[in-house]
Amino acid sequence: IIGSSANNMAGSWRSKSVVALVSLTLLICTVRAEIEEWNEKMLHPQSYVSKRFSVYSKEDAPFGEDDPYISLQVTRHKIEGFKLFMLVTQDPLDDEPICGTNEVQKKYLEGTNASYEEIEFKSDGGSNNFIHKQIIKESGVYYLYVANCSTDSAYNVTIYMEMKNPFGFLPAESCELLHFYFWFALIYLTLLVFWGIFLLKFWDFTIPIHYYIAGVLVLSLVDYIVAYMDYSSYNEHGTKVYAAAFISALANSLKNTVARMLILVVCMGYGIVTNAAMRRNQVQIFMLGFFYFIA
Predict the structure, then answer these.
(1) Residues 98, 145: contact at Cβ < 8 Å?
(2) Mean of the per-residue pLDDT values for the chain?
């Protein structure tokens, strides 16, 4: 059984690596922050910065009472006259310039919440800040662009973009994860309490496998509690704490590793048929667990 398991593990090494890479990519895409800042960004001629937001309207939001909005603040760092352009649209740009013809502009202004505005800084002084705040009335995906339409000049600016849903800073597609992680943490806490009660009640009949099961429950509980705290903080402050995401991913990997090692030793009869199997093949089992965790 050990030899067969080792061959299967070695044969699936590449596939597990690909799955891990895809999962990490999906994680990074999912946890995109809804507050973003470009500090002293050099906007070159005919270039732009952009941000994608998914927003619920106040009526469509599953919970929350605040007005959803998209806001933009642009700050110049030199007293010089120039113009930038801001575009809020529900259609991503199709390789067309924001500063194009009236037909191009009209195409991207068809949405209910679309807007196009000049950001003008005067050379004789005036305000160094441009602030735009837009209440969202219709649910959907929005794109915010800030463009330098000059053909020969680059400008040094700080750009601050922010999106907020009625329930907080979580993007619309991720808001239900807050409830998902909360309820699963509660479920695992309940299972752990009942498992602990049964361990105490039948203490004289317990074997090490029972404690390993308790360990899997503890790791699952830690995984969902940390994930819930991470998303709750993200929803409140608008920025992602990647340390919490790392702890959650680590707990999840440890849980999966221990659970699979547990299945392996049960299939080998440890604690049920013989107590010698674990001791005899302990090194191989831990090596398989280690390689699975790394993969």
Answers:
(1) yes
(2) 78
